[in-house]
Structure formats: C-alpha cells, structure tokens
Amino acid sequence: MSFEEQVDELERTVMSEKPFFSRPGGKIFIIWLILSVIGVLIGFYAPHHLLPAMMSSTGTDVFKTVVVFTVLAAPVAAFVYAVGIYSLIAWRHKGDQDEPPEDGPPMHGNGPMTVVWLVVSSLLVVVLLVWGLSVYMAQQVSHPNTLQIDVTGRQWLWTFKYPGTGVESRTLVLPLDRAVEFNVTSVDVTHGFWPVALGNQVDANPGEVTVIQTTPDKLGKFSVRCSQLCGLYHAFMYSSGSVVTPTQFSQWLQAQGVPPALADRTARIAR
Amino acid sequence: MYVTTDVAPRLLEDTPLGPEAGGLYRRQNIWTGLGFGVFLGFVAWLISHALLQGSNWGSDMVVTVTMVAWVIGFNIGMGSFNAPIRWALGHDQTHQDELYAAGVGQGRSRYLKFCTDHKVVGTQYLVLVLVLFGVGGTLAMLIRTQLITAHSSFLSPETYNSLVTIHGMCMIIATIIMVSGPFTNFIMPIMIGAKDMAFPRLNAMSFWVVVSAVPCLLATFFLGGVDAGWTTYAPLTVQAPPAMDAFAVTIITFVVSVTVAGVNTIVTIITMRAKGMTMGRLPIFTWGSMIGGGLGLYAMPAFLLVMTLMITDRATGTSFFVAAQGGSGWLYENVFWVMGHPEVYVILLPPVAAMLEVASTFARKPVFGYKVVVASFAAVAGLSIMVWAHHMFTTGWAPDLGGPFMLTTELISIPTGVIFLSIIGTLWKGRIWTRLPMYFVYLFLWNFIIGGVTGIYLSDVPADQYFHGDMFVTAHFHYTLLGGAMIAATAALCYWFPKVSAKMLNERIGKIAFWMIAIGIQITYFGCSGRGSKECPVVWRTTTRSSSMPTRWPPVAPTCSCSDGSCSCTPCSIRGATGSRPRPTRGAPRPWSGRYRPRCHWRTSLWIRW
Ligand code: HEM
Ligand SMILES: [Cu+2]
Ligand SMILES: [Cu+2]
Questions:
Q1: Which pTM does this prediction carry?
Q2: Mean pLDDT to the nearest integer, B447-472
Q3: CB 3.0–4.6 Å: which of A166, B52, B315, B549 could bond B60 by disulfide?
C-alpha cells in the first residue's frame, strides 16, 4: 500500500467513525451515568430511611460516613453494572441453544485499562482511609468534664452506675450536649454494649474495662442492646436509654436518692 | 453412566486383577467403616465413662474421647490407613493392590469405598457438598419459620440458637470444600494433564475424614446443642454443654481433611504438570485452587489450635480463655479470626477462578488480564492474613490498631476489584452465549458488588462501631459467601456437570431455579440489611420477640423462606434436571466448547461406558 493509499484508508476509518454516543463506549457511558446518578441519589436518601435518627456525635459520624461511602462506591458499582448490562444487550448471541458461530476477539488484556483501574481504585481507597482515620481520630480526643458511667453486663441485663453519686440504674439517662465516657465490663461472659442511636459500641469483657465515648446531641429515647451473643436470653438483653436536659438529669438523680446539691453538681447546673 | 478417564481403560484391559488384588480393601466399604467407627466409639465411651464418671470435667472428656474414637474407627474401617499400616508391618502395596484401590473392575460400588481415583473422589465430594447444603438449607428454613412472626414460639430459645450455630458451621464446611473438593479433584488434574493427584491415597483419606466429621457436627443436637453462634466465642462456650466438645472435634477433624487436601493440590500442580504446561499457562482455575489451598494451609491450623485449647479448657481445667483464671476471651477471638478472615478467601478464590473459566468459555474470549488476575489472587491471599482484627474493631482490644487494620482491610479491595475488571474485560466485545452457567456469572457480578460495597462500610472503624453485630453484617457476608462464592460455584457446577456425569442439565428447570435463587437472595438479604440497620432489633444470632423484619414487612416473611428454600432446592432441581437428557447435545465430550478453543480438559479425556 502506498503512502497515499494509507492516508486514504485512515481518512476513511476516521470519517466513518461513528459519533461517540453510538459507539459501545458511548452507550456504556450513558448507562453508567444513569446508574451512577441513581446510586448517588440512593446514597443521599436511603440512609435517612435505613438508619435510625442518630442522637450523638458518633451517630452523626456514622451517618455521614454511610453517605460519603455510598456516593464514592456508586460510580464504581455503576461501571461494572453498565458493562454487564451492555454486554447482555449488544454482545449477546441470540439463539440460546446454538453456539455462537465465531469467537470473540482474542484479547488477553489491556495494559492501560488495567493501570487506570488500579490507580482509580487506589485513589478511592486513599479517600476512604483519610476519611475514616480523621473521623476515628477526632473521636479519640478526650473532652474536659466528661461524665463517667460504669456499665456492667451480666446474663441478661445491663446496669449503669454513676460514680460519685451511688446511683445504680437499669436505665441509661444522659444529659444533653455533654461528653460521656462509658467504662464497660462484664461479670460473666462477653456482651456487647450497644446504645443503638448513639452509633457507638464496645464489648463488655469479663475482667477488662473497655472505654468508649460520645456526646449525645439530641433529646429523646434510644435503646441499649447487647450485640454479642451471650447465651439463652441474649435477644432479651436490652435496656432503655434517654437523653434529657441537664435540669431533668439532676431531677432524675434526685429521684434516685441523690442529695440535690450533689445532683446539681453532677449535672453541672449552677445553683 | 459414563466416566471419563485417561488411565483406567488401558489398565483394565492389560492387567486382569487377581482374586487377591486389594487385600483388605476388598472387604472394606462404608458399612465396615460405620460399623468399626461405632464400635470403637462405643468402646471408648465405655472405658472413659468408667474411668471418669463423676469427676469434674468427666462428661467433656467422655464426649471428646468418644468422638475422636469414632473418627479414627471410621477411617480404619474404611481403609484410610491400610497402606501405611501394611507398610509399617513390612509389606508394601503391590501394583495389583493399587489398581484395586483405584477402583479398577469394581463398578459403582467403588463410590461407597475408599477409592483413590481422583474422579471418584471428586464425585464423592460433590455428593457430600450437596448433602451438606441440603442440611444447612433445611436449618435455614427452620430459622426463617421461627422468624415469621415476632412472637412465634415455633422453636425454643435453646433450639433456635443451636440451629443457627449448626446452620453456620455446616455451611462454612460445605463452602470451604464446595469447589476444592469436587472440581479441584475431578477437573484440575485433567486440566494440567496429570494422571491423578500426587497423593491418591491421601486424597481418598481427605474425603473420608471429612465424612466422619459430619456425624460429630449433627451429634451436637443430641448433646445439649451449641448455642454460641458459629464463632463460638469463649468464655460463653466454656460454659456450654458437652455438645461444644463434639463441635470442636468436628472442626479438628475437618481441619485435618482440608490440610491434607491442600497439600495434595499444591504438590500436584507443582510437580505433576504435563510437558509444556508451564506455570504461566496454567488455566486460571488451577491458580485459584492452588492459592486457595495454600491459604488454607495458613488458616486452618489456627482453627485446629483454637479448638484444641477450647477442649482443654473445658475437659482438663486449663484456662486459656477464662478471664477469672488469668485467661482472655480476646485470645480466642484473635486466633479465631486469624483463621477466620483468610478462610473467607479460602472459600472464595477457587469458585471465582472457576467462574472466570466459565465467563471465558461463554464469552468466547480468553480470560482478561490473566497475569494480573493471578497476581491479584496472590495479593488477596497475602493481605488476607493481615486483616483479621477488622472482626474485632468493637471488642475493645487494642483500639490503637483500628487504623492499621482499617488500612489493610481497605487495601484488599484493590486486588478484589481486579477480579471485577477481569470479568467485565472478559465480557467486553465477547460473543456472549447465555447458557445456564453464564446466568450465574451475571448473578455473581450483581451480588458480589453489593457484598463488596457493604464491606467498605464495615471496614471503616467508626461506621463498624454502629454496624457490628447486627443483621447488616449478616447481609454483608451472605452477599459475599452465598451471593458471591456459592453462586460462582453453582456456575462451575452447571458448567462441569456434563464433564462429571456425561449428562446435560435441563436448562429450563435450571433457569427456573436460577430466578428463584436470584430473586430470593435479594429479598432475603436486602431485607436483612435494611431492617437490620434501621432499628437493629434483629441482633444477629438471636431468638427475639422483636425480630421485626417479618412483622414490619409481613408479605416478605414467607417469600424469604421460599427463597431460602429455593437455594437449598437448587441441588435438588439440578439433580431432578439431570436424568432428562442422556447425552450431551453435540460434540459429546465438549458440550460448551464446540469449535471454540478446545480446552485440554474437555478434549483429552476418553469417554467410556462401564
Ligand atoms: C471488599 C472486601 C471486603 C471487606 C472490606 C470486608 C470487610 C468486612 C468486615 C470489616 C467485617 C467485620 C464486620 C463486623 O463484624 O463488624 C466483615 C465480616 C465478614 N465478612 Fe467481609 N469484607 C470483604 C469481603 C468479604 C468476602 C469476599 C467474604 C467472603 C467470601 C467476606 C466474608 C465475611 C464474613 C463471613 C464476615 C462475618 C463474620 C462474622 O462475624 O460472623 N467478606 N467483612
Ligand atoms: Cu449479652
Ligand atoms: Cu474478614
């Protein structure tokens, strides 16, 4: 083939090249775009329906994380689904029972595509990691004036002690907007202390004290469950919890027999 | 029935077996195995009962000793130890004995005997796996029946909890061997051009050892039940009834089998390849088998260790896991998950590799990125031994390690992602032939994406502090294990079934089963994750009056049961579908390949009638 012929040939292929959106790549791009948008919308709306209304700082972290991760994952999942769907539409051999008359192209791999895939997934992992670590580290910071509560699990109930007041209760009452630290332990087997809508949990291990902290930031009720199978009535091992205003908290302490002055001091209400 | 075989027919004609060939093997079969196992178990029970009665830890010791005696007795009775015993006595197996043990001239009865032919072992494994799925699936149906209403009193709490535990362990055992048992044995040697596995007798032994573990597992129901979940966390299990000892013996036995099988696979692939079958040309399934088997060699011993310590804690008064006496439940959890995370990839890698073969055949294209896939299998295996503590984010053990384990866990999604790349790359511009096995490839794609995405929430420490222990985790691992691994294995089953049985599956029935499974999984586990993450009432592994998924969403409950049921029915529908067409449609030994790149494992074999 002479040079002119080659140029002609090239020109013809370029000219006859179909517009982007009618090539496989373009069509897959459209499917991908639609699915990604759906995925992102799911990421923004679904958590409102699938997660409980979170009542604390850690709960809000969980909520945000779920949204962010879903939004990040959606385009990746959408891409895989888009190629899958397109392959069924466009490349499917019609006529189930008879085998395709010829083979597909003998393509053993595609270096650039593989590199792009690896780079994109690595970048996504970096984003996940930075997000996760920064949230986790922020949660570790200890706050001044933390309210300490000793949590004890036993088969099959929870008890909550408020040190310094002598109060021992079956329900968990927390003041609003005050950091609280749970010191969790067990007297028999391993339990899991899980104040659900506070979005945090830690196991109660016999012979060990484990600590988690959170800051309740909404008034209301939540339930405290056991998240670690602990025998026969594990499923019935739950208590109720509530987040109240400091004044109500002080009143609750007084109702448990704490002298008013001490109750107010514990609830940090100036007289 | 047809068998495919390379060696046997020639031997059959050339070497008539003398009446002495086989020696003791001639008199052994599953009945002598059962008989001797029960006998030895009974003797051990009598002796240990007499000696230990009334002592503090008596019943635990008695159960352990009895179970171990049963396992050993069964295998002696089967003939697993014939050759080594004879060898120790100064006789070796003669060539004729070996031929007999390989099943020459025995007809179908060899399926119930100690048979060293890899194709027989593979078929035996296949039947065992289907039986285990049947048992596990039935238990799942009972679980679902209990959950039909929130206040159902169909099962007592003890029964419910033990059903959940045994369902879990039964399925774990079944999924670990679901591809490495049947297909690594049957197909892999043919793929690499080997006459048999490297150690045929160990191969047969690995099968009969795992068979002997199954009665131990079921015996737990009669020994008080294990109500601690499949993870059997200490110290709860230290207080459990003697069923826990039977459970531990089950696992120890199972580990022996898996370890032996793993060594056999690796040695076979490394040393028995035909000329020209270089490592770089190994079919991808062979790589999956080898890397999965190798990872098992790392993971399984930890399981054996932790269960042995559990038994000594219970039966001899040690206190590895008892905090009150200086032990630690965290020790148990660590060793368990050092096994437990690699184990999920021991389960996953062989089916995924098999499914890549399926995708390549039905897209009429080579596997996309062969080398990258092999590398990513290796990377997954390597990373998977460094991520175990993501199961312990909320235990309170080493909070400072949350970050590093979050890193390793998220890193593993990079090589896992390459598997997706390879599948969609293989589909790219292929000639997609949607026969039954290909349906399952697409279903895998759908499910495993969901499994992977749910995994990233769980790998994030702050988010896992919410999700841990609820139905969301259950949904995650059912999407990966059932929706991913098991569906990939089903693709492999449909694909290789004609190779194993010389019969085609009935596609119409197969496709009905497919849609029931596909839809069932979505309803059941999407339901789980939704309900689980909202109110979290269905704390995993519970019997609970507030297990509210069914109550809040009444029509779903029966559907869930049905769909779960359909999954366990798959084997049945597949079985039912088989008889219908006696011979492959075309090109008998290569029903799928036709003109397409005849793969050596479809081509080499002879098809003989016996
Ligand atoms: C993208 C990859 C994956 C990631 C990031 C991931 C992450 C996790 C995490 C962090 C947990 C612990 C959750 C908790 O207990 O709070 C978990 C549980 C689990 N994962 Fe995955 N996973 C992945 C893929 C898989 C695969 C492929 C399988 C199996 C084939 C699997 C099987 C399991 C099982 C069985 C459990 C639950 C064990 C139990 O607590 O009983 N995961 N996963
Ligand atoms: Cu508990
Ligand atoms: Cu894991």
A1: 0.90
A2: 91
A3: B315
